Amino acid sequence: MNYLVFQMDLEIGKPEENRRTIENWLKMNCSDDIDVVVLPEMWSTGYALEELREICKMDGYQSIEFLQSMAKKFNVNLVGGSIAILEGQDIFNRAVIINRTGEIVHRYDKMHLVPMLNEPEFLSGGLNQVEVFELEGVRMGVIICYDLRFPEIIRDLALQGIQVLHVVAEWPLARKNHWNTLLRARAIENQMYVVASNITGTKLEVEFAGCSQIIDPWGDIILKLDQEVGELKATLDLHKVPQIRKEVPIFESRVPEMYRKL
């Protein structure tokens, strides 16, 4: 399965400009052999938290429709990062997965909100558990940024049989070492591919880490960016997942009846 991952320097609070950036990037980088494209967290607005409610009144669903049109235009599956969505009085940080025909096959609202960025003051946490989705017959999952620090939800997805975990993020440079370590840990402990898309640049006095990467089920880094704007292109050999799970059978070795319920 062929992947294309975007590490983006977005414009804060300017969805139209960010949509234009993504479309131009797709024109330059999306070839006929690409199966899945991955975008970062909150790519349309960034963390313009104080402006989000007003932006969402005009945007949000417009950016989802844009992603649907891009999926059809370029004939790719899109892990569409996440977008701020206004529902009633709540603003959700929502990941959207779209197949080649432009159909939304999965939605996930970020459940863990970041106290360090004052997210709980502006956003509502997701109300649903993490769930598996499929692209091209492959079982997959998606989490958003801070969720990476909560291994229990990722193990939940692994126990449901996912082979690829997507992590879409706006992860800061100050905690880059955590990002790099946790991504590899999640790949190793769940014996699956981890595909991570982060942003880069400095926004509202916060410098972001970049370091978008693709990690295999052994925890080896296949490809990784530093802090430059750019993309990753890689082929995931999905046969490695059941092979590694057979060689080191951690799931068969589990004794859940001995684990305390959290």
Globally, the shape reads globular
Give the strand tally. Answer: 14
> How far is the N terminus from the C terminus?
36 Å
The proportion of strand residues reads 25-35%
* DSSP helix fraction: 25-40%
Radius of gyration: 17 Å
H/E topology pattern: EHEHHEEEHEEHEHEEEEEEHH
Structural class: alpha/beta
If strands are numbered along the chain, what order do they take across the biggest sheet?
Answer: 5-4-3-2-1-14
Average pLDDT level? 96
Main beta-sheet annotation: 6 strands, mixed
The number of distinct helices, counting runs of at least 4 residues, comes to: 8
Low-confidence stretches: none
Can you walk me through this structure?
The protein is of the alpha/beta class and 262 residues long. The chain is 29% helix and 29% strand. It contains eight helices and 14 strands. The chain has helices spanning 15-29, 52-58, 61-74, 119-122, 151-159, 176-190, 240-247, 250-253, and strands at 2-7, 36-38, 77-87, 90-98, 104-109, 133-135, 138-144, 164-168, 193-197, 200-203, 206-209, 213-215, 221-224, 230-235. The strands form three sheets. Strands 5-4-3-2-1-14 form a six-stranded mixed β-sheet. A six-stranded mixed β-sheet has the order 6-7-8-9-12-13, with helices on one face. It has a two-stranded antiparallel ribbon with strand order 10-11. β7 (138-144), α5 and β8 form a beta-alpha-beta unit. α1 packs parallel to α3 (61-74). The N and C termini lie far apart (36 Å).
